[in-house]
Amino acid sequence: MSDTLPQNEPPAHLLDAVPFAAHLGIAFEEAGPDRVEGTLAWSPELCTAGGVLHGGALMTLADTVGAVCAFLGLPAGAATSTVESRTNFFRAVRAGTARAVARPLHVGRTLVTVQTDVFDGEGRLVGQTTQTQAVRAPRGE
Predict the structure, then answer these.
(1) Which residue(s) pair with 65 in the sheet?
(2) Which of 3, 65, 123, 127 could form a disulfide with 100 if both were Cys (CB 3.0 to 4.6 A apart)?
(3) Would 141 be classed as within a structural domain?
């Protein structure tokens, strides 16, 4: 799949593979094996007390963008499965749009580790997620 993607152009079908993320309103701005960027707009339905974007919504944004980053770096036919995901929150998102940028830290034969930084609309770091994905070989191998 990644061999046919134009660099930095998000394929429209990416969200078809993650309908929960599409349901929440996540959109991809850029997608390639070295960098994936996605956004999630603040809305009252995604908030916790006090009008703050819920941590679960932010984690879904980071997880989705990070997983796509891991997937786009795989050999044809391979898939991933999350082994571990850890998030640190630094500030709240009270309005605007959260933006997540994912980059691979390690791409191996059996594991891929991705770091995803989440920013608020003013470019301030909101949180950071590090996730490790197991690489699943193509069926029949």
Answers:
(1) none
(2) 65
(3) no
